[in-house]
Design a protein that fits this description.
The protein has a five-stranded antiparallel β-sheet with strand order 1-12-9-6-7, sandwiched between helices. Strands 2-3-4-5-8 form a five-stranded antiparallel β-sheet. A two-stranded antiparallel sheet has the order 10-11. About 40% of the residues are buried. The protein is built from 24 helices and twelve strands. It has helices at about 25-40, 45-55, 60-80, 80-100, 100-120, 120-140, 140-160, 160-180, 180-195, 200-220, 225-240, 245-260, 265-280, 285-300, 305-320, 325-340, 345-365, 365-400, 405-465, 470-475, 515-535, 540-555, 655-665, 670-685; strands spanning about 480-485, 495-500, 505-510, 570-575, 580-585, 590-595, 600, 625, 630-635, 645, 650, 695-700. α8 runs parallel beside α10 (about 200-220).
Length: about 700
């Protein structure tokens, strides 16, 4: 089998036109701003400092950037400062873009864009419009992206903003590169380079990005020496600026040229270095691409098992972030891998999935343009036929005077031609009408799809805002991890943690259903849990009693067969910092404690929360154990153990899950989370995720 040769490598460089990366002085800059904040009196000055702090951290730690942006936003809204409000939304977009969540990023960029437009801040409007284009571009919405780039270019030229002008040139060139029009792409890249070269002080790091794009174009033309020449020029600049993310992009691109020359061992070395650097960033898109490229290199040297493992990782990330280009290449490569293994049926299934997905991504968005061209064609065809008829009739009128026989013959012929043309014209009208109807229906379907997608993404943002933030969890739990893997965009699993006096209350909850229905129950569950803690109900069994009663009442569940029969399974703990005593109560979901490589299971009661046909509140058992320093406590839903996969397509099962937790219990928390995730992906393989997954681990 031939090794994977990625033809969409231009995608790697979009983020170079987007982020202002932090250098080695980033922490000192943050410290300086924090000190200034302590001595700042006025709200406006505080808000501006919060904005600067958000800008410093938004790429490396988006959640921290969101916190600073929220503080600034509250002040700007109170003071009716629309420009400041728009800047906050722009930073939200930056953070979500850094996490490769392009739909959420675009949502906030568009809010920012409208405010900048209303306030007539043309430069900021141009910058925001460019970033909306990047979101559309990374999501595969190329016509929309081109429209955004052209608008950004026009706005930037009005205010002589050469930075945005060069970025727009760059990104338009990338679209040409994607379409295989490398000559046109190079033309735009060299326009960009010409402007940037006139101001090296300002644009030196950006010139590195332009070098990479030129290298990509030359690679497409199979001019590999030229490609490597420009990649190495870019790498030199990025190393000078200690730009970790861009160094990774350069290494990756040099690896791609070696792949094209079938030097797979060399390319694997470059890809591995790039992967290590991408892991230290929040850029999920290029992390997925790095896994894909390593898979190709492993295939090139004949290690198909390793190729499959890396391909699984790329599939999981590209599916999660909706990276259509990578997803297509993964499907195609799965087909090649299974074909190599002799599993032709599975290979055929993946190739069919690839073709269907490709048609969906690249054809639906052009439907209206095709319909318009067909309508134009039919109109021109009809006009030509009518013109022929008019000329023919003129000739016939001249000949009529020669002979009555000729007259009647020609009259009959003219009538026949007229009738034929009328039939053609009628058919043309029917075709145009049909095309209009189909085009309208297609637009309606696309609007409905976009509305549904926007609604679900909005639901995700709301759900994420309700869940405890990483900062809150760190404050309450200290040494912890949470692995949260929704089956769909939003999840029916959620987690909870609050501190009251010297106790922490924490829980992992599995609501009935997946997606939006499950997510709706998470809001209800979170509300009841918070209310119980506020009322100082801190004993786990009493909290579960309260939760069972409230869910049953609010959902009006009773013997009435028409009422809702939904509920929750959960494990809930209360830990006393002073005594190291842990109390636990559970509904179907047990508690695992690992101490000195020995796992203890505390079983849950066998009745769920809220699903009470008789309308009576259930009673739950309160367990109490003493923990010691270093012990691991694990709470979880059933999604991990119930996942189908492995060599025989079986469930993972709790026995294997327990063994896995024991084997990981002595590792640092972040490594435990990563290995749990990788184990799930490896076990799942090409199977679909069957349920939401949530695992919480806490070290005493």
């Amino acid at each position: 089998m031939k090794a994977f040769k990625h033809n969409n490598i231009h995608r790697f460089i979009f983020t170079l036109c987007f982020f202002v990366f932090l250098n080695a002085n980033g922490n000192s800059a943050t410290d300086s701003l924090t000190k200034l904040l302590l001595n700042t009196k006025t709200d406006t000055a505080k808000a501006n400092l919060y904005l600067k702090l958000a800008e410093e951290v938004i790429y490396k730690t988006p959640q921290k950037g969101f916190e600073y942006s929220n503080l600034a936003l509250d002040i700007f809204i109170t003071n009716k400062n629309k420009k400041g409000e728009a800047q906050c939304y722009f930073l939200y977009g930056q953070g979500y873009f850094a996490m490769s969540n392009y739909d959420s990023a675009k949502y906030f960029y568009e809010k920012s864009y409208l405010l900048f437009k209303n306030e007539k801040h043309f430069g900021l409007q141009a910058k925001t419009c460019l970033n909306i284009g990047l979101c559309n571009d990374n999501g595969g919405e190329y016509p929309a992206a081109i429209k955004n780039y052209i608008e950004a270019l026009e706005l930037a030229e009005q205010v002589s903003d050469t930075d945005i002008v060069t970025r727009a040139y760059n990104n338009i060139g990338l679209i040409y590169s994607l379409q295989g029009q490398t000559r046109e792409a190079l033309s735009y890249f060299f326009k960009c380079l010409q402007i940037r070269s006139t101001n090296l002080t300002r644009f030196k790091t950006n010139i590195g990005g332009t070098y990479i794009n030129i290298g990509i174009a030359y690679k497409r033309e199979q001019k590999y020496d030229s490609a490597i020449y420009y990649y190495e020029k870019a790498l030199k600049i990025k190393i000078e600026f200690n730009d970790t993310h861009s160094i990774a992009l350069c290494l990756n691109n040099i690896g791609s040229v070696n792949t094209a020359m079938e030097k797979h061992a060399v390319s694997l070395s470059y890809y591995q270095k790039a992967l290590d650097l991408f892991r230290s960033t929040a850029d999920q898109y290029n992390l997925a691409m790095a896994f894909l490229n390593i898979s190709g290199a492993q295939s090139g040297i004949g290690d198909y098992n390793a190729a499959k493992i890396y391909l699984d990782s790329s599939f999981a990330i590209s599916t999660k972030i909706n990276a259509s280009e990578i997803y297509l290449e993964v499907l195609k490569f799965y087909g090649e891998l299974y074909n190599q293994r002799g599993d032709f049926k599975t290979a055929h299934d993946y190739i069919l999935m690839y073709r269907n997905a490709k048609d969906s991504i690249y054809n639906i968005e052009n439907t209206s343009a095709i319909a318009e061209m067909n309508q134009k064609y039919e109109s021109e065809k009809t006009a030509i036929e009518i013109e022929k008829l008019e000329k023919h009739q003129e000739l016939e009128s001249i000949k009529i005077s020669n002979s009555s026989i000729t007259f009647y013959f020609l009259l009959g012929a003219a009538f026949a031609v007229t009738l034929l043309l009328l039939v053609l014209y009628r058919n043309s009208r029917i075709k145009k009408s049909t095309l209009k109807i189909l085009s309208r229906k297609n637009e309606q379907l696309l609007e409905q799809k976009n509305d549904i997608t926007d609604s679900i993404n909005c639901a995700l943002q709301i759900q994420e805002s309700v869940l405890p933030s990483p900062h809150h969890l760190k404050t309450v739990l200290d040494n912890y991890f949470v692995l949260n893997l929704p089956r769909d965009v939003v999840s029916g699993d959620f987690y909870f943690a609050e501190k009251r006096d010297n106790k922490i209350i924490f829980s992992v909850i599995d609501c009935t259903g997946h997606g939006v229905p499950g997510a709706l129950l998470t809001f209800l569950g979170m509300d009841v849990l918070q209310d119980a803690v506020k009322k100082n109900i801190l004993k786990p069994s009493l909290i579960l009693n309260q939760l069972d009663f409230e869910i049953n009442q609010r959902l009006r569940q009773s013997l009435d067969v028409q009422s809702v029969k939904d509920g929750m399974d959960l494990s809930l703990c209360a830990f006393d910092y002073n005594t190291h005593a842990l109390e636990y109560a559970g509904a179907f979901n047990p508690l695992y404690v690992v101490s000195e490589n020995q796992l203890t299971e505390i079983k849950a009661d066998k009745h769920p929360i809220g699903s009470n046909a008789d309308g009576q509140t259930d009673e739950y058992t309160n367990h109490s154990i003493k923990l010691k320093k270093g012990d691991m406590v694990y709470l979880f839903t059933d999604g991990f153990a119930d996942q189908f996969g492995g060599p025989r397509g079986k469930k993972f099962m709790y026995k294997q899950f327990k063994e896995l937790l024991v084997s990981l219990s002595n590792l640092p928390l972040n490594e435990q989370k990563e290995k749990l995730h990788q184990t799930h992906l490896s076990w799942k393989g090409q199977s679909f995720q069957v349920d939401d997954i949530c695992v919480m681990g806490i070290r005493v």
